[in-house]
Amino acid sequence: MIECLTEDRLAELLPINKVVQDLHVRAYPELFRSNPDPHDLLEFFRAARTAEGGAILADCRPCGIVGYALLSVDTRPGNALVHDQCYGHLQQIAVLPEWQRKGVGRGLIRASVAHFRSQGVQEWRASWWAFNEASAALLTAEGLVPSLQFGRARL
Fold first, then answer.
1. Domain containing residue 85
2. Which of 54, 67, 60 has its CA nearest to residue 115?
3. Cα–Cα dist 10/1, whole Å
4. How distant, in Å, are the alpha carbons of 17, 31, 86, 137, 146 from that of 114?
5. Is the overall model pTM greater than 0.70, yes or no?
6. Count of CB atoms situated within 10 Å of the CB of 84
């Protein structure tokens, strides 16, 4: 069952976050922290959950939380080149390995889209790292169309 996570359950996200964090560390150890401080992570989740339009959705099973999605509603003012923007942002999605490919990620995305609709936004976005083929496949299967690419190079 997917629910909007409350403050008292934030610590249950830490083991799930470790799975996705470790994946990122393996790809870019110079960028991602290998062992983020749990207190700092809880503050990060707390701030995300309480931001305007923010939420953390969790797939809660009898065994505990098996996946989560961290959401925000972001606005960007327009300028001479682009219009004002307001969109739902799926900032993170993480699912325990033993629950992957069982509909958990898909359910979290669909619940995220419903949350964004309830916030009155007309578009949702997410980004993923090029090495994360599983996320790319899931997000594009759920309707996202890649539209902007970033590159990076060490100096």
1. 2-141
2. 54
3. 17
4. 23, 32, 16, 20, 21
5. yes
6. 9
